[in-house]
Amino acid sequence: MPQIQLPAFEKPLPPLEAKLIPLPIGKTGSHKHKAKPRSAPQPEQVAQAIPDQPIAASAPVAASEPVLASSPISASEPSAASAPVAASAPSASAPLAVSAPVVAEPVAAVATEVEAKRPPLPKHAKLNFSVYLGESGIKVGESVHTLDIVDGHYTLKADAHTTGLVHLFKTYHIEQTSSGTATAQTLKPDTFTEIITQSSSKEINRGDFDWPTNKIHFSNGTEASLPPQTMDILSTLYQFPPIKERDQIVSINIATGKNLETYRFQVDVEEPLKTGMGTLQTVHFRRVHKAHQEGLEIWFAQEYRLLPVKVRHLDNDGKIDGEAIITEIRVSDE
Fold first, then answer.
1. Which residues contact 183 (CB under 8 A, 6 or more apart)?
2. CA-based torsion, 195, 224, 287, 303: positive or negative
3. Beta-bridge partner residues of 58
4. Residue 42: CB partners within 8 Å, gap ≥ 6?
5. What is the 8-class DSSP label of residue 18?
6. Continuous segment of H or E residues that includes residue 168
7. How many whole angstroms separate alpha carbon 334 and alpha carbon 331?
8. Which of 5, 26, 166, 330 is most buried by a 10 A CB count?
9. Which residues of 55-64 are buried (b: 16+ CB within 10 A; e: fewer)?
10. What pLDDT, in 10s, does the model give residues 114-142?
């Protein structure tokens, strides 16, 4: 798989202080939800995946699943264990700064029956991930995500590829792109494409969202009904779902380039996560699944507008297939 080089004209990024500030939510109440201690996954419990980012929009991500759950990574075929993110960089006119926190109230403070609000999306963002293979924690690649919102339209890309010694024996590259309309807090996809390249083979998958007719058309010739608020596997990473204090199982309709599925996630609203950026306070989503089904887990950082900071993909036996972990976040609202 070819190595991805970022544009050389990119200007040095200005330093930015990051502070832990609560996130915005709906009206608060007297009842607060406390994160339950995490127990070992049960057969009918959650799964994890990797945003197609920590390694090309694919690694630790299943091929047609969110680089969140895209092509699983294996020793012989190291894919990015992470979430999608493209190799393209934000425009030179909008320099990115180390992600700025947004003033908000902790998600755990959501009142009963009151949904947590999404924090505002940055106009431009670039997230770098390291992708690791299996439970051994061996680094096999890198993933870069870029988000650009201009005049109500967004382009989100994830680019993951193998690196180091792994690249000498097996190349793996995944590019994922989601585009559509955007508001200050939401993304509504019109198209999703995924290009998976390994050694001498290439696979291209695409999903077209036809909102006027409520249909989604796939490049494999199939189509499906399009429920409201459906997301693609990549934009899901940047669409923190509103949650309620007593509704800790969240259902999300997610489309890949091949099909449409309903994912159910168990949510832990307060969970510390150690990363190369320090310990972050996160909201942890774990896919609820049947035995012998692939799993997916996503961690969203409360200090950084609930942007994704870790994506993990699990195989059919419940073992870690790959994961992508954040190393740097830079954003700009200009």
1. 152
2. positive
3. none
4. none
5. -
6. helix 164-169
7. 9
8. 330
9. bbbbbbbbbb
10. 455 778 999 999 999 999 988 878 898 99
